[in-house]
UniProtKB/TrEMBL annotation:
Protein name per its UniProtKB record: TetR family transcriptional regulator
GO molecular-function term, one example from the UniProt record: transcription cis-regulatory region binding
Record-annotated DNA-binding residue ranges: 27-46
Superkingdom as given in the UniProt entry: Bacteria
Amino acid sequence: MSVTERRAALVESAYRVIADHGVEGATTRRICAHADMPLASFHYAFESRTALLGAVMETAVPSDIDQMLAAILPTGDLDEGADLEVMEANMRRQLQAFLSMLKADPGRLQATISLGIYAHNHPELQRYGQRMYENLYAVAAKGLDAAAQHAGVRWTQPTSEIAPVLIGTLISVTLIYLSTADDHVMQLLVESLVRQTMSHAADA
């Protein structure tokens, strides 16, 4: 294994261990065991556990959210047409796909939320937590731009301002699902998010 491959394996394993055991439970020993590599090899890739957690927030989390948002706001395999109704229908359908992914593997988004809270409470990680959310907003803005282009509509305000609301609402949806698993409330939140987001869309 090269150092680059070792780092990538440890980052992915750390993300998975955090999803299963929380940040506090993500010890270097447990992470190395998940990555199927000896504990002694850890420091060939990262100088500390803090450096590894920072790498998770800078690479694994945005990449994971990018994939989720690609399912929510894709540019292909959607209803054909170029108007607001088509865009709204597509958004509603793809948010249902997000709920399905959340139910299938809630730990991934739980890990994202846990990392943000953990970083806030640990000064050495705060800059990573801030950058993690900045990356998430950027990914969401990119998805919103792609969705508008596909449907032939425009946003009435910058997507850099809409994106934080989208991410914040998805995190709220995740927290409520993790706490209650209430499908009815999930549907109410999804419908609210669709209406809220579409209120910023207009015919091109």
